[in-house]
Amino acid sequence: MKPKSPQEIKIMRQAGHQLAVILNDLTKMVMPGVKTQEIDAKAAEAMKKAGLQAVLLGYQGYPASTCISVNEQVVHGIPGKTVIQDGDVVKIDVTAAKDGLVVDTATTVVAGQAALEVKKLLEGTQRALYAGIDAIKGDGTKVGDISAAVEDVLNDYKLGIVRDLVGHGVGYGVHEMPNVPNYGSAGSGPKLSAGITIAVEPMATLGDWQVGTLRDGWTIITQDGSLAAHFEHTVAVTENGYEILTQL
């Protein structure tokens, strides 16, 4: 849990903005009839053009440049021949590096028309993301402050809070300490100093919180088959607050 220097955060800020632009473009591809591998190919092309390294490709043997998870798939879905259908809930998670420093971001969109309960799922999960980020009050913030803020919003929306997957430190690698759970008690957990960079990423469901893994060894799904959403930003802790590094 080593703070990044101002120069390192500058690099992450540049990469984060580039990645945010790419993710925004990818969301526009989410429509009925599109294959998830087409979105992944576009992402790989865009990252290469931007001078970013697609760090997921080959990471612990992962076979694609992005994670694209559909409906009951929570995270780590492998892009392939899956054809997106009207009403599908599609999560796109992109991770990239610039000069060896990693940034990570994700969003959830619906192909075509969204049912009311799906709108609630996406709205609640995204609001939980920003509530967690807003809980960062600068140097000395506890991880539990973030976790509790996320949990409060997800509970307000009566969503299932995925407990087996967490946010995490990011920067020198894809996953660093500390872990940042999406539930917990304010004032608990490790203390975050200025310069620490973390990925805040609530994952929620319309059903229960238990998850399992498909035979591919990567794709995490809800055990009860309920729809899931995932939103994520890379955030730098500052002396008196925070900076979102993966925004437009």
What's the short story on this structure?
This protein is α+β, with helices and mostly antiparallel strands. Helix content is 28%, strand content 27%. The chain is built from four helices and 16 strands.
Please outline the helices and strands:
Layout: H1 6-27, H2 36-49, E1 66-70, E2 73-75, E3 89-98, E4 101-110, H3 116-134, E5 141-142, H4 143-156, E6 160-161, E7 167-169, E8 176-180, E9 191-192, E10 197-200, E11 203-205, E12 211-213, E13 220-222, E14 228-230, E15 233-237, E16 242-244
Antiparallel strand pairs: 1-3, 2-13, 3-4, 5-9, 6-11, 7-8, 7-10, 10-15, 11-14, 12-13, 15-16
Distinctive features:
single chain, 248 residues, alpha+beta, Creatine Amidinohydrolase, three-stranded antiparallel β-sheet, globular
Q: Please, could you describe this protein's structure?
A:
With 248 residues, the protein is of the alpha+beta class. It has helices at residues 6-27, 36-49, 116-134, 143-156, and strands at residues 66-70, 73-75, 89-98, 101-110, 141-142, 160-161, 167-169, 176-180, 191-192, 197-200, 203-205, 211-213, 220-222, 228-230, 233-237, 242-244. It has one domain (6-244): Creatine Amidinohydrolase, CATH 3.90.230.10. The strands form 5 sheets. The protein has a 5-stranded antiparallel beta sheet. It is globular and about 45 Å long.
